[in-house]
Design goal:
CATH topology of the largest domain: Serine Threonine Protein Phosphatase 5, Tetratricopeptide repeat
Largest sheet: none
Strand content: under 5%
Mean pLDDT: 81
Shape: elongated
Order of helices and strands: HHHHHHHHHHHH
CATH architecture of the largest domain: Alpha Horseshoe
CATH superfamily of the largest domain: Tetratricopeptide repeat domain
Distance between the termini: 97 Å
CATH class of the largest domain: Mainly Alpha
Low-confidence stretches: 1-36
């Protein structure tokens, strides 16, 4: 049957529309276009397979993708944080748990997990803060309660050790700075140094929030920097400066 020119043109136009659509559908079924959620699937598969390179690539891409849903982002951060902790990458694990807490600040498990990492790193005041936060959210959280009790005993032990008369808070055999050598040579300065260290530890443990704790750490570092810089100057009285710092810590919590 012969088609008239107008009918032939209509058939060509129809084929131009239908054939590309069919081609796209076939390409999609062949896997050219990724299905939603495939990124997190690859990330979790890498985590379960304990493949560090795949975790870094797969999970990192999920977290960098602005389109990733909050619930998926939270899942990846918690899972990768646990993975990093198992591999002793403490700082990276703490960072992941911190980002997870920003997304879900009502999770006692997250605060407790991060607290355990702070404790492993030796950051006792920060560990105490996280354990306390976990217990505020869930007073029945057994692991957080046990961790909090253990930290309390540890801080008591440190305080008792720091109460030893005339002994500085640092090893005198490692003293290099002029101020440190002066402290090691004078029992009264040694007592003040140990008392300052103990009071600083207590003040950090009692800090109301991370911001106050960070302010206390900056003050501690500033005091030590000024002490070392001015030691030996004629107008600098080391004992007076240490006594003043101890009074600040014991009277006002260091602030």
């Amino acid at each position: 049957m012969m088609l008239r020119p107008t009918e032939m043109a209509g058939l060509v136009l129809a084929l131009c529309v239908v054939l590309p659509a069919a081609a796209l559908a076939q390409a999609g079924s062949a896997g050219v276009k990724a299905e939603p959620g495939s990124g997190i699937t690859a990330c979790l598969a890498a985590l379960s397979g304990d493949d560090g390179a795949a975790v870094e690539a797969g999970c990192g891409s999920v977290l960098r993708d602005e389109a990733t849903l909050r619930v998926d982002r939270l899942t990846v951060l918690k899972a990768r944080g646990a993975f990093l902790a198992r591999h002793d990458k403490i700082d990276a694990a703490i960072a992941d748990y911190g980002r997870a807490i920003e997304l879900d600040g009502a999770s006692a498990d997250l605060f407790n997990a991060r607290g355990e990492l702070w404790r492993a790193k030796g950051e006792r005041p920060r560990a105490v803060q996280d354990f306390a936060a976990a217990l505020r959210l869930d007073p029945g959280h057994d692991r957080a309660r046990a961790n909090n009790r253990a930290m309390a005993r540890e801080l008591e032990r440190i305080g008792a050790e720091m109460a030893l008369p005339g002994t500085p808070s640092f090893a005198c055999r490692q003293a290099k700075r002029l101020a440190e050598k002066a402290i090691c040579a004078d029992p009264e300065l040694g007592r003040l140094d140990r008392a300052i260290a103990a009071a600083t530890t207590v003040a950090l443990a009692r800090a109301r929030d991370p911001g106050q704790a960070e302010q206390l750490r900056r003050q501690r570092d500033g005091f030590l920097a000024e002490r070392d810089a001015r030691m030996g100057q004629g107008d600098y009285d080391l004992k007076k400066a240490m006594a003043t710092r101890l009074h600040q810590l014991t009277a006002g919590g260091g602030l």
